[in-house]
C-alpha cells in the first residue's frame, strides 16, 4: 500500500498529517431515535493495524461503513489522505476505490469465478484493460494463497476460501487501507483460522488495516491499538496488553473476561 510515506497535508487546524491514512472527527450516525455512533474520533496511520471490538449492537459495523463512506454520517467528518470526504462535491466513487472493504457476509458474484470476481472491479472501476486486470487479479489471489482456485466458482469454495477471495478483491484495487468488518463471524473455527492466517501475512507485509473482530489471539499478536466500542462510543483504547492485563473501565474488564473465557473453551 505504498512503500513511501505520503506527503504532509495541511488540515483546517494547521496540524500536519504526514502519514495519517484515514481519520474521523466527532463522527455521529443517528437513525431516528437510535444513536448508532456517538462522537467518535480516531485515526489510522500508514502501516497501522487497529482493531475495534465490543458487544453486539455497539455500532462497530455502522462505524466501519461510515469510515468507508458506504453510509453517510449524520454529523462529523471523515478524511482520507487529508481530503475531507464528508464535504459537498467530493467524488466518493474515486475515494471508495482507495478504501478496500471486506464485508461480514461474503458478497461474491456466484456466476463469476474467483478470478472473475476480482477482475470485475479492476475493469469497471479502475478501467484497466483485460490483460492488465487479469494479471493484477492473479497477483492478488497469490497474496492470499488462492491462485490454485482462480477458476473455481463461489459454490465450489469453502467459506474461508470465499472470504480470502473477498480479501484478494480488496487488495487488487491497491487501496490505501483495508477495512474488515468481522471477516470471520460467519465461519467455523477451522475456516476462521484460514482467514486469520491471511490477515497475519498481510500484517507482516505492512498492510494498513482497520479490523472489526473478536479474535483475541490475533489482536494480541498483531494489533497496534485496540479500541473498545460500546453504545456507539469509544469507552477505552490502548495497546493490546492493556486490555489483556488491566483494562481501565469496568465495562471493558467484564467484556474481556468473557472473550478470554470463550477463547479458552475453543
How would you explain this protein's 3D organization?
The chain is of the alpha/beta class. It has a domain at 20-98 and 175-265: P-loop containing nucleotide triphosphate hydrolases (Rossmann fold), CATH 3.40.50. Helices cover 36% and strands 23% of the residues. The protein is built from nine helices and ten strands. It has helices at residues 60-67, 92-96, 114-124, 130-143, 159-172, 189-204, 216-222, 240-245, 250-265, and strands at residues 20-31, 34-45, 49-53, 75-80, 83-84, 99-102, 177-181, 209-212, 225-230, 233-238. Helix 3 packs parallel to helix 5 and helix 5 (159-172) packs parallel to helix 6 (189-204). The protein is globular, with a radius of gyration of 18 Å. The chain starts with 19 loop residues before the first strand and ends with a helix. The relative contact order is 0.16. The model is unreliable at 1-18 (pLDDT under 50).
Mean pLDDT: 89
Q: Which of globular, elongated, flat, extended, rod-shaped describes the shape?
A: globular
Q: Give the assembly state of these chains.
A: single chain
Q: Biggest sheet, strands in spatial order?
A: 6-7-8-3-9-10
In N-to-C order, the SSE pattern is: EEEHEEHEHHHEHEHEEHH
The helical percent reads 25-40%
Question: Any idea of the CATH class of the domain at 20-98 and 175-265?
Answer: Alpha Beta
- Under the CATH scheme, which architecture of the domain at 20-98 and 175-265 would be assigned? 3-Layer(aba) Sandwich
Give the DSSP E fraction (strand runs of 2 or more residues).
Answer: 15-25%
CATH superfamily of the domain at 20-98 and 175-265: P-loop containing nucleotide triphosphate hydrolases
Structural class: alpha/beta
Amino acid at each position: 500500500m505504498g512503500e513511501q510515506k505520503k506527503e504532509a497535508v495541511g488540515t483546517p487546524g494547521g496540524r500536519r498529517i504526514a502519514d495519517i491514512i484515514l481519520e474521523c472527527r466527532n463522527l455521529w450516525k443517528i437513525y431516528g431515535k437510535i444513536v448508532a455512533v456517538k462522537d467518535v474520533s480516531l485515526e489510522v496511520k500508514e502501516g497501522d493495524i487497529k482493531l475495534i471490538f465490543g458487544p453486539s449492537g455497539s455500532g462497530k459495523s455502522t462505524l466501519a461503513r461510515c469510515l468507508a463512506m458506504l453510509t453517510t454520517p449524520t454529523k462529523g467528518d471523515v478524511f482520507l489522505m487529508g481530503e475531507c470526504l464528508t464535504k459537498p462535491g467530493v467524488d466518493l466513487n474515486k475515494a471508495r476505490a482507495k478504501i478496500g472493504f471486506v464485508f461480514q457476509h461474503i458478497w461474491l458474484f456466484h456466476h463469476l469465478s474467483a478470478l472473475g470476481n476480482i477482475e470485475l472491479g479492476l475493469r469497471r472501476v479502475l478501467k484497466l484493460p483485460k490483460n492488465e486486470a487479469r494479471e493484477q487479479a492473479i497477483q492478488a489471489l497469490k497474496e492470499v494463497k488462492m491462485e490454485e482456485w482462480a477458476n473455481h466458482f463461489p459454490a465450489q469454495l469453502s467459506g474461508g476460501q470465499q472470504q480470502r477471495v473477498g480479501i484478494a478483491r480488496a487488495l487488487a484495487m491497491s487501496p490505501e487501507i483495508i477495512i474488515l468488518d468481522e471477516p470471520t463471524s460467519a465461519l467455523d473455527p477451522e475456516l476462521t483460522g484460514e482467514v486469520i492466517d491471511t490477515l497475519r501475512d498481510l500484517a507482516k507485509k505492512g498492510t494498513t488495516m482497520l479490523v472489526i473482530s473478536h479474535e483475541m489471539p490475533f489482536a494480541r499478536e498483531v494489533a497496534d491499538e485496540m479500541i473498545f466500542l460500546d453504545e456507539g462510543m469509544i469507552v477505552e483504547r490502548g495497546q493490546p496488553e492493556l486490555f489483556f492485563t488491566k483494562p481501565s473501565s469496568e465495562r471493558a474488564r467484564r467484556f474481556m473476561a468473557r472473550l478470554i473465557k470463550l477463547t479458552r473453551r475453543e
